[in-house]
Every structure is written in structure tokens, then in C-alpha cells.
Amino acid sequence: MDNGYFALQVTPNVAICEPVIGQFFMLKPGEAIDPLLLRPFSFVDFIISPNDKYPNGLLMFLIGAVGKGTNILKRLAVGNRLSVIGPLGRGFPAVEDDENLLVVAGGIGIASVLGLTKVYHGVSLFYGIRTKEQIPDTEWFKYTEGNYHIASDDGSIGEKGSVLELLERYISQLRKSYSGKIKIYACGPHGMYKAMVRMNLDAEVHVSLETPMACGIGTCLGCAVETVNGLKVVCKDGPVFNLKDIIWDG
Amino acid sequence: MDNGYFALQVTPNVAICEPVIGQFFMLKPGEAIDPLLLRPFSFVDFIISPNDKYPNGLLMFLIGAVGKGTNILKRLAVGNRLSVIGPLGRGFPAVEDDENLLVVAGGIGIASVLGLTKVYHGVSLFYGIRTKEQIPDTEWFKYTEGNYHIASDDGSIGEKGSVLELLERYISQLRKSYSGKIKIYACGPHGMYKAMVRMNLDAEVHVSLETPMACGIGTCLGCAVETVNGLKVVCKDGPVFNLKDIIWDG
Amino acid sequence: MNLSVNIGGLGLKNPIVTASGTFGYGVEYAEFLDLNQIGAITVKGLSPHPAAGNPPGRIWETPCGMLNAIGLQNIGIDAFINDKLPDLRKYDTKIIANFFGDTIEEYVEAAAALSAADGIHALEMNISCPNKQAGWIAFGTDPALTEKVVAAARKATKLPLIVKLSPNVTSIADMAKAAVDGGADALSVINTITGMAIDIETRRPRLSNIVGGLSGPAIRPVAVRMVYQAAKAVKVPIIGMGGIMTGGDAIEFILAGASAVAVGTANFVNPAASVEVLQGIKEYMTRNRIDDINSLVGGVIC
Amino acid sequence: MNLSVNIGGLGLKNPIVTASGTFGYGVEYAEFLDLNQIGAITVKGLSPHPAAGNPPGRIWETPCGMLNAIGLQNIGIDAFINDKLPDLRKYDTKIIANFFGDTIEEYVEAAAALSAADGIHALEMNISCPNKQAGWIAFGTDPALTEKVVAAARKATKLPLIVKLSPNVTSIADMAKAAVDGGADALSVINTITGMAIDIETRRPRLSNIVGGLSGPAIRPVAVRMVYQAAKAVKVPIIGMGGIMTGGDAIEFILAGASAVAVGTANFVNPAASVEVLQGIKEYMTRNRIDDINSLVGGVIC
Ligand SMILES: Cc1cc2nc3c(=O)[nH]c(=O)nc-3n(C[C@H](O)[C@H](O)[C@H](O)COP(=O)(O)OP(=O)(O)OC[C@H]3O[C@@H](n4cnc5c(N)ncnc54)[C@H](O)[C@@H]3O)c2cc1C
Ligand SMILES: Cc1cc2nc3c(=O)[nH]c(=O)nc-3n(C[C@H](O)[C@H](O)[C@H](O)COP(=O)(O)OP(=O)(O)OC[C@H]3O[C@@H](n4cnc5c(N)ncnc54)[C@H](O)[C@@H]3O)c2cc1C
Ligand SMILES: Cc1cc2nc3c(=O)[nH]c(=O)nc-3n(C[C@H](O)[C@H](O)[C@H](O)COP(=O)(O)O)c2cc1C
Ligand SMILES: Cc1cc2nc3c(=O)[nH]c(=O)nc-3n(C[C@H](O)[C@H](O)[C@H](O)COP(=O)(O)O)c2cc1C
Ligand code: FES
Ligand code: FES
Predict the structure, then answer these.
(1) What number does the ligand 1 atom closest to the CA of A44 have?
(2) Between the CA atoms of D12, D14, D20 and D22, what dihedral angle is there, to the nearest 10 degrees?
(3) Which ipTM score applies to this complex?
(4) Cβ contacts of residue D288 below 8 Å, gap of 6+?
């Protein structure tokens, strides 16, 4: 894959707990002390039941090479060792049968929510990207059973413009036939979330937040966000939050 | 090679000057800022005349993995890029036809002087190591035409004990038939040099010094050594010095 | 092999301490390591009343280090004593309560409240957080004020009193002397160095507090130097810290003059770092045939 | 795109300066880069008489940084003027002579001797070397003495006088004010931070001088913070330095308040670092549509 995103497969050397979509792992890029800290990543998929090839299962990540740590991860070769801590944090809440789930991803945010399409087969996926080249394999969208909607900034794939407009149209269409609860599970840049707040969507929106992290387990208090219930740490109280609870600065 | 030493081949992307044995290159282990500084290494061999495979020639290093930087160099894969500066410093002086050259190496010091056996075909090599496992391919000693003498600390190869004793015996033997100038070109730990001073060898001894370096080009003044002619910088005034000029502390 | 050390009246089975603010309230790490193995746990800095700390934008990674401006967020002394201490008491390790106040009176209040609790073995007085206001910072940078606030806290506790020094000073020796004159039984050296980072795209500081404290391997040479200088200036034992990642790093601090060492930022990189540092110390001692860790303290040959 | 800046009367074609002691006497780097491309070259610290510096054991690498205790070895002002300056004059770049003395009188002597030479465009006064004795160090850590020695040098030169501050102080703002009160036209912020490293096998300090100066990326957050604080305290222009490796790092210093930047340790890692930093600054300005570098100075949004 050479679209800025790359896939990383990790075979744990001890058994891991089954992760919930929206949870994450801390990965250490290399053995060096620079970069110093582990980096948080959601998983796109996993194999948890041991088999011959993967006695402790397999974790699959989709990563955007944006800086020092992610570029080191990109250059790892088969056989390299990594420090891994996880699964960590609280994932997306379970969706009830009478609820209608819509999944929204912006850019590399796809990595955190793609797993939802596997758990909730046939769920609608809304995916916004800058340009066609960025898109991971469309094979990845197979669990949506064709029920995916793409928007790109440059119109090179899907509709030109914001994926949130697609989402909004879809919801008003849906509302014609459905009056139950709509849940939106989203992962994307914070700007996308702020836009969602402004749109005042007729749905319960849960989003996965990204902040720099040090410990990943709630002890350093470095990844705090302001919520209506006071400061919360993204790594332990989140990373998934109800959008309405978050207080955005500026 | 898995004896603690490893070979590193560098194909320069610009033409380089022909180096003199005893000169060195500064290599940057990786692109990271930790380790920060380049590391100095002599070369064991080189191809300078361009050919199809190596348009800018080839540099060959023999390196002991002793710390952070050398271990990164050890893990480099084919195709990785390196920053290289060199050739730097002053190498071993030319040997006149009427002089008798003896080459002495202690441990990884072999890397700096092995090239002398190629330039001065059939020259005698004295090589001291800890144990058999450490020895690079004996193929490397081919230019000595069998004229090499090994001593190991544990007696697992060659004579048990100090290579300097072999050297001393060889010199007294040689002196029976030869009264001309004997030159010794040596590279090894500083302890070996101090022992050579104490032995007061009947020869002109030139040694290659190792000190931590920052710039490698004489500007930081970090690699200073005390000599009878005042402070000198190893990277520019050396690394090869006449042993009698060096003032050893302690 | 004797690993036990005495830090101003606080006996530790080994010289490994966790640094305040980098090990939560201790219990969170029970799933990553055997807490019984470490000499002491220093808990997150506590104040008489719960504190919210600084707004987000609290940490940022820098070359071989990190900046933090948590702003001393904590649950408050009462909640610590009621909710965390009972769990901590179950472990066979010493508990050091790191504390601070906004005024001398609050320091006294905090010291008294913590001393009354069961299961706290020593107090570490933080006068050196770089994320507080200028007035507060004087507690840790003006020797006269240091002596005054330490003396006040000294009267409020019978527990061993460890004073944690700021590296953001011209003379660590003078600060060490002031703390000892005030009645400190031991010193912790060093807290974080004040630093700053700016996002060149948004032009905003990476931390909401503008400046924060630099920790991690980047600061180790500065920390080793300050331990060396403080140890020459005073006779009380020193807990050395600042960028310790390995047993070898810890030995460096001990040779410089520290009687114990604290593992800080390394806990984030590896939650089991403290026991691995201990392991490294033991290996070094075995390799060098050292029977008693105390024989290494201040052993640098200058 | 305007890159030219004015540093207290010293006009530079661009804000890139080389840091003293990391670029030799300048000419050594001519084979690695076009010296005409950089704003100014600051040469190795000069004293009235040649100085031998410290014994070997002068440098040691640390995490993302290095310690040095060269001890201000230099060929002396006369040899510099006679042997190096004629070569340097051939280049279209400004020459800043970094200087020091052991006494106030020597500072004055050095300033006067350098001012009399042809081809030196500004003086940088080093009162902040961490490898000197306690008494000397007071020049850079005691504000009253700083003001006094700067005032004395001020009278001895008509050239722009840049004073280089030590980071080993409680308040960089106070030091900046003292230097400006003494008559500094500009400030260099920062010199190295005092540090120490110990070889745990031999138990000896890595540096013969025991302590040395820490430089490189490790110290960048501290340097950025000090530039920010100094820039708020005084009105004179600042040359920012400490761990600059890239154009982005340089922009960080400029946003913090530096009018120019010096590239130091990076020259060892890459002899052409200074021109690459300049290139990076230009790219940043192009990308962000910035016409004049001066519009970025102190542009951090707090
Ligand atoms: C819960 C969680 C899950 C995540 N899942 C994924 C994932 O599945 N795939 C993926 O590609 N990325 C994911 N991220 C983002 C990823 O952690 C960052 O991209 C990564 O840490 C950047 O590291 P770096 O060293 O390459 O960047 P740096 O060199 O450290 O910085 C480069 C840029 O990344 C930004 N950045 C630094 N740390 C973070 C962070 N923790 N989160 C967001 N931005 C950051 C910086 O502001 C900077 O602009 C996730 C983040 C969180 C918090
Ligand atoms: C002119 C010259 C030529 C050299 N040629 C070779 C060679 O051909 N092959 C080879 O294997 N090594 C050679 N060396 C030594 C090599 O430079 C060091 O082994 C290397 O720098 C260590 O880097 P590191 O990051 O692995 O070690 P570090 O992690 O930096 O340190 C590990 C140990 O190496 C020692 N060390 C650090 N720097 C140096 C140094 N510059 N010289 C000696 N010891 C050092 C330290 O004291 C420490 O004990 C040469 C050194 C010099 C000065
Ligand atoms: C995230 C974080 C929070 C910290 N909180 C405190 C604190 O509450 N009280 C305190 O005295 N020191 C605090 N410190 C300082 C550390 O205890 C330690 O002195 C410093 O980080 C240097 O050690 P290190 O480099 O090993 O981390 C904190 C450090 C970090 C990184
Ligand atoms: C090897 C070395 C020698 C130095 N010599 C001097 C000097 O002679 N005079 C001086 O004012 N600063 C000297 N410095 C300090 C640098 O000029 C600079 O202020 C400091 O290194 C921080 O910048 P950097 O991190 O980019 O190197 C020296 C620094 C190093 C690393
Ligand atoms: S990353 Fe440490 S509390 Fe969240
Ligand atoms: S390494 Fe810089 S002078 Fe030799």
C-alpha cells in the first residue's frame, strides 16, 4: 500500500484479551529512546483465537505515516520486535437491535471504525478523504455489503466535498421511514467533530478522540479533555466519548 | 560473520578521494537524532576505480558492535542510506623500501591496519584477540602470505598470551640478521600502546588512536590528546601518531 | 548482596523509588509488576484540596524527553487517604506521599494531614513544580523562602521529610543547604527543567500552560551533575532522578552521590521499568563484585 | 521574500548564524558549503592570549545531545587576526568574534583588540561557559557582575555588542535585563547547560573537567523557553540557539522571540546543516506565504 497509510501486523508473544472496537494499543516505535514514548493506535482487525500460525492471535493496524514514530513503524521489517500495551481504554458502546448504526470516518480515522463494519455486518459507512490515492483497498469495505459512501475533497473518488453532507442527506432520507434511535460512531479529525456539533445531527453521536499520550493507562494525566462532567483522560475514560459531553475550546 | 564483528559495505553516491590506510570515515548510524553524532571508522578495504557495479567505488568496514551506534549499523539492511564524511585525518606514513614493516593489531584494531597487508604484500601481521570466536575470516590474512602470528587470551587460537610477546620475540630474531629500520604500525586498545611504551621496542612505532569524536574535521577540538608537541586533535593531526610523541595519563 | 538503604530515617529494602506523578497512586501498576519488589512508591503530588490542574495540551514529546504541564491535578489528600491508601497498605513497600500547597499554611496543613494517616512512611515536599505561578515558584528558587517553608512543614510532621529540589536555579548547592537548614531529612534531586515547545503551524505553544517541565533521558546529564553538586554540599541522603531508564543509569546517579534513585518518565515507556532498573543494578553489582549498594554511594573518582 | 534581519546594528542577509565553538574559525567549512550563503559566522571563543583548554576527555555523547568541556581552547586574538581573518574577509558574510577574558580587564583588552581589526562586524561576549571556575562563572550568573563586565566591554568597542547568556540561572529574564543595562545591543540565548556523565565501569567522570556543557536537540525545549522569557524581558534583538537541527526548529525559536538563530551542534552532525536550516526556513515561509522573516519574530500566540 503506498497511499500514505500502511498496514502493520503484530503477533503478540503472550495471549491478549479480546479488544472492543474503539479500544487501542500503545506501540513503541523501535528500541531507541528517541522517539521516547509509545504511540497509540486503534486496530482495524484482529484474530484472537489461537491457531497454529498465530498461537497468541494477531493484531492488525492501519497507520498513517505523519511523523517520527509512525515513519519508524512504517520501515519495520518482518521479525522486528515491538513493545505493545493493550487493549486499552473504552471502545464504542454496543448497539442494540432496535438502533440504527451509521459509521463515519475521516481520513486515517477509518482505522478506528472499520472494525465496526465487521461486527455490525451491512452497516452504512461514510468515509471522507482528501483524494483517491489515500484510499485503502476497497476490499476493506466488503462487510458494508456495498453500503458505503465516499466523499473526497478533490472529487477524485465518490462525491466532491464533505462526507458530512452525505451523512446529513442520508439521515434525512432515513428519517422518512425510520423514527427509532440513530447512532453515529465516528473517528476523524477534531474539526470534523466540531462540524458535527454545529450540524446538530438527529442522532446519538459517539466519537473517538485523539490526543498525544504518554502512559496510555490513566496515570500521567497528560491526555485530558474537558467534558461536561469535568476533565477526563482520553486513554482510560475514552477514547470513545459521547460527542455532546465534550467541551471544545475555540 | 557472527563473532561480534560485522562487515559493512558502503557505496558512495559521489566520487570519493582515494584514502590512505589509517585514515577514517565518519558514519551516521541511522537518520535519528539519537545517537546524534557520526561515528569514526577506519576502512578495511576499498574499491576506488569506478566500475559498472560501483560507479563511485566501494568502501568496506569491519566493525565491532560495542554500543548504541555500532549496533544500529549492524542492523542496517541493504539499501539503507547513511551519511558519510571522509576520508579524514592522516594515515600511516609510507614505508621505504629499506625499512622493515611489522603490523600489529589488537582486537577490532585489525580493521584499521589490515589494509596495510594489501599495500605491503607479505608484510608480517601480529594479531592479538581474546578468543577464537572473535577472529574474522582467516581469508582476510591472505595478503600476509602466511606470515601472520596470532595470540589469544585463552589460547583457543595461536599462542596463549600477549601478542606483544610474539612481537618482541620476532624482533629479536629479526635483529640477528637485520640492522636496518624496523617500523611498527599498530592499532589496538590504548592499554596495548602503553605496554609497547614500557617494552621500549627497538623500532619506530606508529599507532592509530581512538577517542570519542564529534566533528571529525578538527573544529570541535573534542578529540584532543596530549603530545610532546602540545595538544593535538586525533581526527586531523592523527589518528596515526608516532608512539613516542604521545603523553599517556595515569 | 545488601540493597537496603536508609533515606533520612526511611528504611528501604532496595534503592528503587518511583517518581511522583509518573506512577499514579501506585495501585494502577499492580497489573504490570510486583509492587512488593520496589523500595518505595512515591504517589502523585497531593494537596489539601482536590486540584483540577491545567487545561488540555498537557504533554508534548521532545528529543529524548517530554514536556508536561499537568498542573498538579490530584484527588486531594482526603480522597487519597480514603480511596487509595487502604489498597496500597497491602503491599510490602514504603509509601512516600508527595505533597504541595499554594501557601505556607497549606504546606503545613498537607504535612499534618498526611502524617496522621496510617501507612504513609515518608513525605516528599514538592517546592519545585515548573507549572505554577511566579510567586509559588519562589518556594523552590529563593533559598530564604525555601528554608522558611521547609521549616514550617518540618514542625508539622514526625515522618522523614524529603524536600524535592528544582533544577531551575543558579546554585543547586545553595538550595540543598537551604532545605537542610529548614530541617529536611533527605533531598530529591531533580524535578523537571522548565521548557517550551511551539507548534509552528498554529503558532501556539504545545502546552496550554505555555511552559512545562522537561523530563526523560534528555535531562539526565543535568540531573547527574546536580546530584553530584548537592551531595557535595550537604550530608543528608539524596534520591537521584532525571531520565533513569536502565540499571546503568541508576548506578551513574548513585556514583554521583544518590543513596536511592527514582524512576520517572521511564514508567510511561515501560510500566515495569522500575523492576528492570533494579534488576540492572543487581547485575552490575554481581559483575563488579559489590556486596553493599551503600559502598557505591558518591563513589565517583574525581 | 525578505530574509534580512538587524541584530543590534549588525545587518545580516539572513537570520542564520553559526554558533561559536561549533564552526571552528569558519574557513574549515568552506569545502562543505558556500559560506556566502549564511548570515554570519561566529568564530570559536577568543581570548587575549592563546589558551590550551582542558585535558583530554573533552566530549561525551548523551541522549540527543553531547557534553563538552573543551575549556575555551583557542589560538588567541592576535593569531586569529593574522592567520584566519584575512581568509574570512574573502566571503560575503558577517563575522562575529566570540570572546572572553579571565578578568574584567581581559574582557576589555579582548574587546578593544578585536574592534581594531578589519573585517569583524560584531562582538559576542561569552560570560557563560560552564567549564570555567566558580569565580568566573559569576560573570554569567550574578546580574550585578554581568552588568559590570558588560559595561566595561561596552566602553571598549563601537561594534555591535552581543552578550551570550548562560542558561544555568534561576531567572534568564533578570540576566537579560542586566546585560542590556550594561549596554548590550543584542543577546545570544543560550549557551550550554551544565551537565555531567560518569563511566560506571571506571567510576570516573567522562570529562576531565568533571562537568561540561550540554548541547544539541536535548536542550531545545529549555532554549526555546529561555528565548521566550528573555524576549519578553528586554527590547534588544535575540539570537536564539540550542539544539537547532532543521528549519522548523529555527522557526520555533523565531516565533518564541529570536530575530536570528545560531546552528551549533548540528554542524557536527552535518557540516552543511546551516544552509539546510536556511533552506527549511525558506520553504516554511513559502508554504505559509510569509514575505518577511521579521513578521514572524515573537509571533507565538499565547
Ligand atoms: C486512541 C488513539 C487511536 C489512534 N489510532 C490510530 C490509528 O489507528 N492509525 C493511525 O494512523 N493513527 C492513530 N492515532 C494517531 C497516532 O497515535 C498518531 O498519528 C501518532 O502518535 C503520531 O506519532 P508520530 O511519532 O508519527 O508523530 P509525531 O512526530 O509525534 O507528531 C506528528 C504529528 O502528529 C500529531 N500527534 C502526535 N501524537 C498524536 C496522537 N497521539 N494523536 C493524534 N495526533 C498526534 C502531532 O500533533 C504532530 O502534528 C490514534 C491516536 C489515538 C489517541
Ligand atoms: C579513527 C578511528 C577509527 C576507528 N575505526 C574503527 C573500526 O574500523 N572498526 C570499529 O569497530 N571501530 C572503530 N573505531 C571505534 C568506533 O568509532 C567506536 O567503537 C564507536 O564510535 C562506538 O560507537 P557506539 O555508538 O557503538 O558506542 P557508544 O554507545 O557511544 O559507546 C560504547 C563504548 O565505546 C566507546 N567509544 C565511544 N566512542 C568511541 C570512539 N570514537 N573510539 C573508541 N571508543 C569509543 C565508549 O567509551 C563506550 O565504552 C574507530 C575509532 C576511531 C577514533
Ligand atoms: C507527567 C509527569 C508528572 C509529574 N508530576 C509530579 C508531581 O506531581 N510532583 C512532583 O514532585 N514531581 C512530578 N513530576 C516530576 C518527576 O517526579 C521527576 O522528578 C522528573 O520527571 C524527572 O525524572 P524522570 O526524567 O525520570 O521523569 C512529574 C513528571 C512527569 C513527567
Ligand atoms: C564543542 C562546543 C564548543 C563550544 N564552544 C563555545 C565557545 O567557544 N564560546 C561560546 O560562546 N559558546 C560555545 N559553545 C556553545 C554553542 O555556541 C551553543 O551556544 C550551544 O552549543 C547551544 O547550541 P547547540 O545546541 O545548537 O549546539 C560550544 C558548544 C560546543 C558543542
Ligand atoms: S496518556 Fe497518560 S493519562 Fe492518558
Ligand atoms: S572530532 Fe572534532 S576536533 Fe576531532
Answers:
(1) 8
(2) -150
(3) 0.96
(4) none
CA distances for D275 relative to A140, B86, B228, D31, D36, angstroms: 45, 20, 39, 13, 10
**pLDDT confidence of B31, banded at 50, 70, 90?**
confident
For cell 505555555, the residue is: C210
Question: Per the domain annotation, does D65 fall within a domain?
Answer: no
> Residue D36 carries which DSSP code?
G
| Residue in chain B lying closest to C218 (CA) | B34
CB–CB contact C300 D228 (8 Å)? no
pLDDT tens figures, B73-112? 998 888 888 999 999 999 999 999 889 999 999 999 999 9
* Of D276, D279, D275, the residue nearest D287 (C-alpha): D279
β-bridge pairing D212-215 and D65-68? antiparallel
Phi (first) and psi of residue B116, to 5 degrees: -65, -30
pLDDT confidence bin for A50, thresholds 50/70/90: confident
The pLDDT, as a whole number, for residue B3 is 58
Q: Do B36 and D59 touch (CB under 8 A)?
A: no
* A contacts of C55 (beta carbons < 8 Å): 224, 226, 249
d(CA D121, CA D99) in angstroms, rounded, equals 13
**All 3 cell numbers of residue C104?**
505556607
* Number of neighbours of residue C102 by Cβ within 10 angstroms: 17
Looking at per-residue pLDDT, the higher value among A249 and C168 belongs to: C168
Q: Is residue D205 part of a domain?
A: no
User: Does residue D266 fall inside a structural domain?
Assistant: yes
Q: Which grid cell is D300?
A: 507565538
Residue C209 placed within a domain: no
Q: Which residues, 6+ apart, have CB-to-CB distance to A165 below 8 Å?
A: A151, A159
| Pairwise CA distance, residues C219 & C189, whole Å | 12
Q: What's the whole-number average pLDDT of chain D?
A: 96
Where does chain C have alpha helices with state H? 77-79, 85-88, 104-116, 134-137, 143-156, 172-182, 220-233, 247-256, 266-269, 273-287
**Domains of chain A by range and CATH?**
5-88 (2.40.30.10), 99-245 (3.40.50.80)
Q: Compute the distance between CA of residue B184 and CA of residue B165 in angstroms, rounded to an integer.
A: 14
Check residue A250 and give its pLDDT.
57
Residue whose grid cell is 491535578: C73
Q: How many CB atoms lie within 10 A of CB A235?
A: 27
Domain CATH for C272: 3.20.20.70
Residues 6+ apart with CB under 8 A from A68: A29, A34, A35
Strand ranges (E), chain B: 5-10, 24-27, 39-42, 45-47, 58-64, 84-88, 99-106, 124-129, 148-152, 159-160, 181-187, 204-208, 224-227, 230-233, 240-242
Per residue in C24-55, pLDDT (tens digit) is 999 999 999 999 999 999 999 999 999 999 99
Beta carbons within 8 Å of D29's beta carbon, 6+ residues apart: B219, D18, D23, D35, D267, D271
The distance in angstroms from the start CA to the end CA of chain D is 26
Mean pLDDT of C9-20: 98
Chains that touch C (3 or more CB pairs under 8 A): A, B, D
Provide the pLDDT for residue A3: 57
Q: Do the Cβ atoms of A93 and A20 come closer than 8 Å? A: no
Measured CA distances, D258 to A88, C67, D16, D251 (Å): 42, 21, 11, 9
Query: Residue D96: CB within 6 Å of ligand 4?
Result: no
* Strand D161-164, strand D186-189: pairing: parallel
Rounded CA separation C136/C129 (Å): 9
Give residue ranges of B with CB < 8 Å to any C CB: 33-34
Compute and round to an integer the Cα radius of gyration of chain C. Answer: 18
Q: A222 and C68 in contact by Cβ < 8 A?
A: yes
pTM of the model: 0.97
D129 as an active site residue: the answer is yes
Nearest chain C CA: its distance from D202 CA (Å):
8
* Structural domain total, chain C: 1
